[in-house]
């Protein structure tokens, strides 16, 4: 087994036994990036020299008690790290060569654990997109088929993990941006309860929907990472003041005695028959493992996309206001007055999707429309949350598809933003409700493309979904499949 293909748990054991060094592991991942990323475009900022220095320091210390000590990773290009370019894959910041003077809480906690940052992974511009096609650095390609998207917005992170360019990667999930690319690329994606992890130092898209999570090779690895980054943060008032469980201690308890719900609203007309078959087959596997699977209803799920695409752009409109060319972002030197300066700076810095969402959000929040759109969307959000609360009185977790189809072709939805927004149909409700979701591989299409399912839990229920995901993963081999990484021409 090559070093970059190791899981965190496997690498940790080898580091503790001195069978490998952190420098060797980090260098192997760097070499892997140099070899395959020219075709994939998953890594947009490289921090290789500093990563190797940190790896050598870890080896010199010689203590690898923490499971993440000496483990190389990539962060989505919205996580601020001192001295490392962080641009949200937008010309608004790329043209200014923005380098943060501080660390996000998440990367700071990983650094304290001994993990080694190698650089930044590609993302849709300011995380706005479902395919990583809106990045100013160009599209990230799916390692299973380079004519297809990796998903988004954490497409760079998902591709990097699936292609063994790192042992894990950080992502953010606002409407499915961790779970959907994990499903498309065949890796594990964990979206946590809103407030379980800190958003401090992570560039915001929609503040009430954003959550910090991870993309990993196995459920066990996802649990290891969450253990390090979860918990109350005085720098983020939205983090919950609740205990962080020992996720690894309960991981192997199995699903015997669990009740798992299958929501009828997540098996809709028009979805791929292969996706439906894979998820229903996974439900049967859960039954074999001792779980009870029951049909449930989440009646307001059909309104989730409409509500999401009012609330999300409204918060985008607010968050993007800071990028005006004066406080932050791209500047213009050809203007006659302040208004023209704002227009030129923002027109030159933002891409089409960001502009589209700013316009939608500003319209929804404007006088005369706030009550008609934004307030109504928030009411629907409450109904969706109540649907889940009622469901979790009867079931321990919920099993559902992640996306209606496997990865689609690059450019397939470029001229149809509504069709692109519908990619979030199964994932956005969970963000509106603020609940945790775990995406894991559960099948493959006839073309060999990965298919993922999501296990959804109640608030602060990461322990439950990790336990259920681990049981399924151990009983199947979908997570062991690896892409061949041939070029598109082949």
Overall description:
- By secondary structure, the protein is of the alpha/beta class.
- The protein has a single domain, classed as Alpha-Beta Complex (Amidase signature (AS) enzymes).
- Helices cover 39% and strands 14% of the residues.
- It contains 17 helices and 13 strands.
- A hairpin with a 2-residue loop joins strand 4 (141-142) and strand 5.
- The longest helix has 22 residues, at 370-391.
Strand content: 5-15%
Question: Could you spell the SSE succession in H and E letters?
Answer: HHEHEHHEEEHEHEEHHEHEHHHHEHHEEH
Q: Would you give the CATH topology?
A: Amidase signature (AS) enzymes
- Low-confidence parts, pLDDT < 50 over ≥5 residues? none
Based on DSSP secondary structure assignment, what is the total number of beta strands?
Answer: 13
Give the overall shape, derived from the CA principal axes: globular
Oligomeric state of the chains in view: single chain
* Sheet/helix structural class: alpha/beta
Rg, Å, rounded:
21 Å
Side-by-side strand order of the widest sheet? 1-3-2-6-8-7-12-13-11-9-10
Helix content bin: 25-40%
CATH architecture: Alpha-Beta Complex
Number of helices: 17
Tally of domains: 1
Please state the average pLDDT score: 96
How are the elements arranged and paired?
Layout (H helix, E strand, L loop, with lengths): L7 H9 L5 H19 L2 E4 L1 H14 L10 E5 L14 H4 L10 H9 L2 E6 L19 E2 L2 E5 L5 H8 L5 E6 L5 H7 L2 E4 L19 E6 L2 H11 L17 H4 L8 E5 L9 H16 L3 E5 L7 H16 L18 H12 L2 H14 L4 H22 L5 E5 L15 H5 L6 H6 L3 E8 L5 E7 L5 H14 L15
Parallel strand pairs: 2-3, 2-6, 9-10, 9-11
Antiparallel strand pairs: 1-3, 4-5, 6-8, 7-8, 7-12, 11-13, 12-13
């Amino acid at each position: 087994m090559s070093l970059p293909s190791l899981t965190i748990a496997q690498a940790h054991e080898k580091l503790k036994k001195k069978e490998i060094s952190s420098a060797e592991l980090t260098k192997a991942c760097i070499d892997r990036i140099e070899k395959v990323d020219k075709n994939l475009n998953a890594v947009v900022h490289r921090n290789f020299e500093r990563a190797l220095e940190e790896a050598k320091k870890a080896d010199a210390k010689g203590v690898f008690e923490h499971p993440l000590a000496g483990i190389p990773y990539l962060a989505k290009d919205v996580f601020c790290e001192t001295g490392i370019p962080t641009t949200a894959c937008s010309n608004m910041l790329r043209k200014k060569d923005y380098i943060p003077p501080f660390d996000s809480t998440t990367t700071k906690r990983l650094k304290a654990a001994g993990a080694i940052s190698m650089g930044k992974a590609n993302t849709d511009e300011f995380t706005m997109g479902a395919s990583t096609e809106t990045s100013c650095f160009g599209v990230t390609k799916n390692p299973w088929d380079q004519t297809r998207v990796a998903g988004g917005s954490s497409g760079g992170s998902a591709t990097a993990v699936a292609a063994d360019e790192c042992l894990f990667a950080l992502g953010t999930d606002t409407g499915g941006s961790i779970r959907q690319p994990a499903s498309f690329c065949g890796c594990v994606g964990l979206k946590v309860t809103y407030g379980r992890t800190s958003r401090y130092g992570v560039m915001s898209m929609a503040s009430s929907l954003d959550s910090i999570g991870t993309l990993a090779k196995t459920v066990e690895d996802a649990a290891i990472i969450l253990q390090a980054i979860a918990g109350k943060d005085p720098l983020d008032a939205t983090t919950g003041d609740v205990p962080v469980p020992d996720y690894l201690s309960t991981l192997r308890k199995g699903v015997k005695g669990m009740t798992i719900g299958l929501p009828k609203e997540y098996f809709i007309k028009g979805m791929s028959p292969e996706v439906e078959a894979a998820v229903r087959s996974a439900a049967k596997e859960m039954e074999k493992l001792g779980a009870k699977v029951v049909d449930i209803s989440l009646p307001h799920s059909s309104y989730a996309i409409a509500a999401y695409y009012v609330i999300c752009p409204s918060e985008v409109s607010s968050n993007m206001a800071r990028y005006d060319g004066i406080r932050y972002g791209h500047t213009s030197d050809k203007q006659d007055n302040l208004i023209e300066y704002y227009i030129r700076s923002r027109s030159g810095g933002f891409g089409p999707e960001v502009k589209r969402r700013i316009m939608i959000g500003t319209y929804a929040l404007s006088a005369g429309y706030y009550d008609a759109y934004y307030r109504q969307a928030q009411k629907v959000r409450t109904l969706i949350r109540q649907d889940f609360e009622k469901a979790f009185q009867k079931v321990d977790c919920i099993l559902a598809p992640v996306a209606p189809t496997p990865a689609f072709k690059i450019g397939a939805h470029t001229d149809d933003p509504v069709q692109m927004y519908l990619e979030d149909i199964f994932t956005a409700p969970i963000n509106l409700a603020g609940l945790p979701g775990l995406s894991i591989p559960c099948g493959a299409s006839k073309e060999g493309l990965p298919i993922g399912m999501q296990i959804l839990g109640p608030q602060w229920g990461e322990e439950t979904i990790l336990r259920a995901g681990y049981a399924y993963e151990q009983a199947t081999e979908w997570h062991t499949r690896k892409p061949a990484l041939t070029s598109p021409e082949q």
